[in-house]
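tokens incoming
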């Protein structure tokens, strides 16, 4: 028996296309599906869990998709995710996730081994995209971490589209 997820797998038309128009269309379809899944849900953890699961199913080449939640000043703690076991706590002063939280801006890293202070939660990880997640009032809620075993797996289009998804799913952006 086929599910709706089979027909819209990461390898479905658009996701792996070099054509930015097709890739944007694939992200827009994902955004529409995410909005439908999140409709009426106001619990942030449930929204994070659903978002991580959908992105893990849709975005090509990901080995990990997960949230690190801000739980106290200068500290992230792992939240809902899909993939191998993750680091549990990340200070704002360390790693790609910490940099995204500290600077309140996305971090697009084509080679994690060249990133100063990279934390190797998964030794096979080669590239990473981390996007801050803001509440409607501009407060930093979390960061969304996407990892890949492939080098340069993410580009500026991925960053732009994931940032847009997070704004639509959680809030308006930084204050």
């Amino acid at each position: 028996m086929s599910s709706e997820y089979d027909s819209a797998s990461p390898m479905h038309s658009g996701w792996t296309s070099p054509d930015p128009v097709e890739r944007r269309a694939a992200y827009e379809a994902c955004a529409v599906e995410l909005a439908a899944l999140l409709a009426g849900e106001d619990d942030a953890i449930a929204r994070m869990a659903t978002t991580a699961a959908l992105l893990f199913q849709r975005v090509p080449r990901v080995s990990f998709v997960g949230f690190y939640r801000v739980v106290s000043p200068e500290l992230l703690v792992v939240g809902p995710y899909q993939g191998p076991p993750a680091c549990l706590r990340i200070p704002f002063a360390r790693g790609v996730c910490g940099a995204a939280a500290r600077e309140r801006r996305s971090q697009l890293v084509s080679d994690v081994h060249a990133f100063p202070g990279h934390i190797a939660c998964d030794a096979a990880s080669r590239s990473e995209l981390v996007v801050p997640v803001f509440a409607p009032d501009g407060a930093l809620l979390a960061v969304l971490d996407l990892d890949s075993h492939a080098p340069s797996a993410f580009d500026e289009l991925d960053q732009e589209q994931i940032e847009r998804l997070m704004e639509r799913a959680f809030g308006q952006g930084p204050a």
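note: The two ends are 47 Å apart (CA to CA).
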